[in-house]
Amino acid sequence: QAAKDMFYHSYDSYMTHAFPKDELAPISCKGHDTHNCRGCLLTFYDALDTLAVLGNRTEYQRVVNWLANHGAASFDREVTVSVFET
After folding, report:
1. Which residues pair with 23 in a beta bridge?
2. Residue 74 near residue 39 (C-beta atoms within 8 A)
């Protein structure tokens, strides 16, 4: 339960303070785009697998629908994106 609570704390904070930027800066609590991706919605995409694992089908489907309608353009660019946690 603690891991689930931590995920939703982070995810809800991202959605409230940073969406549609790539990431949420934890100290300023503001969204920003990464230097190489510049608006790829990295956190939004990255949360999908966790939403699935947690069994949150409603939010998972909402994100998938949003990406299907708005997200394709976010990856129509020639850049190298690292999603490895550093």
Report:
1. 32
2. yes
- Cα gap 25→32, rounded to integer Å: 7
- Could you tell me the pTM of the whole model? 0.81
Interatomic CA distance for residues 46 and 12, integer angstroms: 14
- Report d(CA 1, CA 17) in Å as an integer: 24
Give the 3-state DSSP-derived string for the chain, with helices as H, strands as E and coil as C. Answer: CHHHHHHHHHHHHHHHHCCCCCEEECCCCEEECCCCCCCCCHHHHHHHHHHHHCCCHHHHHHHHHHHHHHHHHHHCCCCCCCCCCC
Q: How many CA atoms lie within 13 A of 23 on its CB side?
A: 13
pLDDT tens-digit map of 5-55: 999 999 999 999 999 998 999 899 999 888 777 778 888 888 999 999 999
